[in-house]
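Researcher: Next sequence.
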Amino acid sequence: MNKKPRRTLVRGFKDNLPYLLMLLPAIVTVFLFNYLPIYGVLIAFQDFMPGDKIFSDTTIWVGFSNFTRFFSDVQFLPLMKNTFLLCIYGFIIGFPLPIIVSLSLNALRKKKAGKIFQTIFTAPHFISLVVLVGMLQLFFGRYGLVNNIAAGMGLERFSYFLENSAFRPLYILSSNWQDFGWSAVIYIAALSNVDPGQHEAAMIDGASRFQRILHVDIPAIMPMISVMLIMSIGGLMGVGYEKALLMQTDGNLAVSELIATYVYKKGLTGVPDQAYATAIGLFNSVINVVLLIIANTLSKRFSENSLW
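Model: Next structure:
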């Protein structure tokens, strides 16, 4: 009884051997750089100093003391607040934007124009973060284009990079400008699978362009929207440190100090406290995993679409 499934598996493996070999470098890379270093989280439970071995007879295990230290840190609530607000505002703006853009491009009558716009919208994704922040400085710096225009009109210069109120809008809007076109590609690909006959039938029934988007296109990409929503919620607190650190100044530190930047500073600058930094990073990752499980469970219950 077990020989037939085994033969089928071996035959399938042989038939797909060229494709599996093509995947092998990617699998090895992900294993080496994403899975193999996971054992390093053990230092979050140790009194670890740079140069110490993770496993040795002299290893000092401290349990959850690094975590309780972070919870009692005066920076805990500000860090959680700054990270959560930045992520949730970015999510509210950034998640629906690619959907709206993809539906708009797909509804264009001239497909050539849609491809041109898609290329224009996607291009900013390939700009590095360093260049992007440099562009923000050129436009919104104290002597940047916006302030020069304001000064020419007799208005006072505004220090965007020194004001707390300007950090989140600059960060969120520039991030969405950079990534919305790239994210829209996923939905455009899903829309390409919509049966043209459904649109023709809707047009015969007198449906307008907006009604066809509402009743044909959106239901067609709803499974993809559900999956992307789950993944977005799962990475909600996973904002990186690079851009925030590049935009960070003494003037906006009250809102720009995030969990990621705090981990970077504690773990790699000054007197490194890598055990403490690892504990903070692990705590942030656990929050993301919990959010992912909750989002997946709710999506499976209410929409029957889920990652597992």
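Model: The chain has 15 helices and no strands. The mean pLDDT is 89.
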